[in-house]
Design brief:
Layout (H helix, E strand, L loop, with lengths): L4 H8 L1 E2 L8 E4 L4 E4 L6 E2 L27
Antiparallel strand pairs: 1-4, 2-3
Length: 70
Amino acid sequence: MGMTSSLRREVQRVIHEDLRRANVLWNDELNRALIINFHQSKLDPRPSKSRAKRKSYRTESPDGKRLRVL
């Protein structure tokens, strides 16, 4: 099961607040460390970095509908 990009951004904003050896477990099946005990954790309030949006070169009418050139 893969993580979606929005979920990955949220996970990266978590501040654990109690990261110590007792809260890190090794999982042999996954071959990686797992962090546990998030009861003191907080979410970083700073907005995550977002990609610069490309300018739209489409022509739109005032009501938001795209106009087609024939």
